[in-house]
Design goal:
Elements (H helix, E strand, L loop, with lengths): L2 H25 L8 H24 L7 H8 L9 H22 L5
Helix pairs in contact: 1-2, 1-4, 2-3, 3-4
Protein name: DUF3325 domain-containing protein
Keywords: Membrane, Transmembrane, Transmembrane helix
Length: 110
């Protein structure tokens, strides 16, 4: 498995955790959990997408496919939990990451 594929898998797991934590914060399933872990996961997902794109580019894979996910992540509106613009952008980010990861997964010539 190529390094960018490993980072894509880790980033996907972090993104799933981010979405799950965001939903639990919105629904108030975990009382007393602050938004700080959500923000840390968001930073880690942004870093993971960036590192994945760089490693994919180094491997000759389609790194460009991850750029829409990164753009959507970095343009995430800062709103109160539960606002429609926030969760809609989060779902768009997840869809863009999944699509980009599937495209960037392959390495030509291997």
């Amino acid at each position: 498995m190529a390094p960018h594929q490993v980072v894509l898998l880790l980033t996907g797991a972090l993104l799933a955790a981010l979405l799950s934590l965001g939903l639990s914060l919105q629904r108030r399933w975990w009382a007393g959990v602050g938004r700080a872990p959500h923000h840390v996961l968001f930073f880690l997902v942004c870093a993971g997408v960036t590192i994945s794109a760089w490693l994919a580019w180094q491997a000759g894979a389609a790194a460009w496919a991850l750029l829409p996910a990164l753009i959507l992540l970095l343009s995430m509106p800062r709103t109160r939990p539960g606002r429609a613009d926030h969760w809609q952008r989060a779902l768009a980010c997840a869809a863009a990451f999944l699509t980009g990861a599937l495209i960037a997964w392959g390495v030509p010539g291997r």
